[in-house]
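Give me the fold.
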Amino acid sequence: MADAQARRTPAAGLKPLQSRWGRMVAVLAVIGPGIITANVDNDAGGIATYSQAGADFGYSLLWTLIPITLALILVQEMTARMGVVTGKGLSDLIRERFGVRATFYVMLALVIANVGNTMAEFAGVAESLQIFGVPRWVSVPIVALTVWLLVLKGTARIVERVFLVACIFYVAYLFAGFLAKPDWLDVAAGSLRPTLALTGPALTMVVTLVGTTIAPWMQFYLQSAIVEKGLRLEDYPLSRLDVVIGCVVTDVVAFFIVLACGATVHKAGGHIESAADAAVALRPLAGKWASALFAFGLFNASLFAASILPLSTSYYVCEAFGWESGIDKRRGDAPQFYFLYEAMIILGAGLVLLPGVPLLRIMLLSQTANGVLLPFILVFMLLLAQDERLMGRYRNGRWLSALSWATAAILIVLTALMLWFAVR
């Protein structure tokens, strides 16, 4: 009997290990869309926005990142929930519920905004590599070709893994923030004590921060990625965890970008015109390593987003009009999907190569456009998420609906104030 017991012991000991391995495989099978979508939002335009927020306002706007993070989690969780419950993309649901006309105008506004966003990504590529001596007429075509080949030759699984690896490199901004040697007591005060000057520049910056952190295209891409990955209702708890982790990580990165520029450029009384200017300005103020890390982070973010933004455009336009879409589809099976992807890359990269193009203005205007467009997208999302016929018991409840509508109302008020100050 002792021998029999000894033979059973190893087998019994393997069960927890097998169980843990099974859980790990299950997590890895679901994790991805939430983390990727949130992190790609720290793109060239976002980094330019966070850099200017720190350079112009120091630590005083750090506190805004806390409610922005909570709002981002609220919106992204709702998007993920609609994806796993309905098995359809957001633009598909908008067409079914609100009709082709409303869908057409939403798609038109999103495509225009995304052309500006894609230009901003290639502008970020150009600016970051110019710091290392690479001219834009070399860097932009090479990166455009790279992102085109990634989607053309890769599968959905390979592309997702490449994107997840790219997320790791955002840690460069955390190192840059520590190397900037901020005053941590002032950082704590800026993070925990809400203050906001009711001026045009301050309100515009807040709306732009919201627009760059909670971009409209993110909701369409996240839901499409969840649907293409085939996530089901039983995957929802892990999908929600994926979303929450992504939202927290992306705003921690944003926090350190604002912090780094607040501790250096703002403290020195300087001003920057772009994220690349921030990287250069860090060199004498925080050392060459902080500057190099900031520039590298800008390049990684720009390359990452230059791959995803055209992809998101292809997804939601094809879904809106019932065309085949997906990275795993052949060109012959999804011609519109690949045409749109290539057109966005050619437009974004080509326009940036034109002489005299104001790169910073394009970056900041694209983020402000996101902030203006977001409330309208949120209204569609909220109406869908609280529809019992569509969502069943997973619809927004009374308190979640109230919180969601309050968030949308605040964003609309901020946008109205920004426009009012802009035309005064």
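The mean pLDDT is 79.
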